[in-house]
Amino acid sequence: MQTAMVQSVVREPVVFEHALETLLAAARPLAPSTLAALERRGLSPSRPLQAAYPGAMWPEVIRLVATAMDTHGDTEAAEYALGQRFAECLRESKLGAAIHSLGRVVGAERMLLRMSRNIRTTNNFLDAVVTPRSEDTGWELLIRPAAEFARTPGLQAEPPHFVRGMLTTVLQQAGAPQVQVDLLHHDPVRATTTFRVML
After folding, report:
1. Cα(160)–Cα(118) distance, rounded to whole angstroms?
2. What is the distance, to the nearest Å, from the Cα of residue 178 to the centroid of all Cα atoms in its chain?
3. At the topology level of CATH, where does 14-198 sit?
4. Which DSSP string do the residues of 120-166 spell out, in sequence order?
5. Which Pfam families match (predicted)?
6. How far apart are the first and last CA of the chain?
7. C-alpha to C-alpha distance for 8 and 114, rounded to whole angstroms
8. 9-19 burial string, b = 16+ CB within 10 Å, else e?
9. Quick check: 115 pLDDT over 90?
10. CA-to-CA separations, 88 to 24, 68, 100, in angstroms, rounded
C-alpha cells in the first residue's frame, strides 16, 4: 500500500504587474539613468511586463523612482508626491477606476475599513488592520505582512511616505477632502507601518 504524500503549496510574496505599470506611469518622464536602473532589476517600461514580480522589487522600485524624482534633497516629500501620483494614475486604470467608483459610492470611511482588500490589489504579501482610536475621532491603520508571510526573511514594507501620499489621495477621492494621514511608527525589520487617519 502506497502512502500519498501531501505537500503544502508555498506561495512567494509577489507584486502584481498593474501596480508596477501604474508606478512607472506615475514616475514619467523617466531619466535614462532611471531606465537603466530599472532594466538592471528586470523592468523595462518599453516592453510588456510580466504578470507578477518578486515582492522585494516593490519597495525597491518605489525608492528608486522616488529618489530619481527627488530634486530638492527631500526623500520623504518625493515619496509622498509619488504616492499621490500613483493614486491619480491608478484611477485611470480599469481596476483603479472600479476602486474609485466604489469609493465614491461607499465613502472614505468604508474605503479605509476595506484597506486590506485594497492593498491586495497591488501585492499578495501585505495586509491591513484598521481600528478606531480611543483618544480621538481618528483611526489607526496598521500595515503589516499577511499571516502566511509574517516569517519571510527580508520582507519589506512600502516606504511609509509613499503610502501616506497614496492614502491621502485615495481617501480625498472617496469624499474626505480634509483627510489627514500621519505616520505614527515604521519598523522596517518587521515590515510594519502604523498611521493615524483623521477623516
Report:
1. 16
2. 21
3. H-NOX domain (3.90.1520)
4. TTTBSSEEEEEEE-SSSS-EEEEEEE-GGGTT-TT--PPPHHHHHHH
5. DUF2378
6. 63
7. 29
8. eeeebbbbebb
9. yes
10. 12, 19, 10
Q: What is the pLDDT of residues 51-71, one digit of tens each?
A: 999 999 999 999 999 999 877
Cell of 198: 483623521
Q: Among 174, 171, 188, 147, which residue's Cα sits nearest to residue 196?
A: 171
C-alpha distances in Å from residue 114, one per residue of 15, 99, 119, 179, 199: 19, 11, 9, 17, 15
Q: How far apart are CA 84 and CA 195, in angstroms?
A: 16
Joined together, the cell numbers standing for residue 36 give 537603466
* Helix count and strand count (H, E) for the chain: 8, 6
Cell numbers of 107, please? 465613502
